[in-house]
Amino acid sequence: MELEYQIEPVFRVGEVNLGYDPVSELLVVITYELMREGDESTPSLARFWATPAQMRAFAIHGQEVVASGRPTCAMCGEPIDPDGHFCARKNGHRA
To answer: Order of strands, edge to edge, in the sheet holding 45-50?
Structure first.
């Protein structure tokens, strides 16, 4: 499930829906384009059909990707940015 870079997105996702078709026993993920406020055009969408096993593998992979992201601060639980972290607990502003 590795991505090939350079990625040029077609659109930024603003809404995600999940469905299941009991006849085909397939799950579907439907993504809708994030629209600017006041934009009256029809949003782009994409549909992804997959078996339950494929979706399970996708979900596990997603958890691994998220877990490999920014580390969290042991004191406040907030993510630590690459250029540092302002910890509210260390500063005494959060209980």
So the answer is: 13-21, 26-33, 45-50
Predicted model pTM: 0.63
Residue 46 carries which side chain, given as an amino acid letter?
Answer: A
Three-state DSSP state, 78:
coil
C-beta atoms surrounding 58 within 10 Å? 15
- Cα maximum dimension of the chain: 57
Strands 13-21 and 26-33: antiparallel
pLDDT tens digits, residue range 24-44? 999 999 999 999 999 999 999
pLDDT at 43: 93
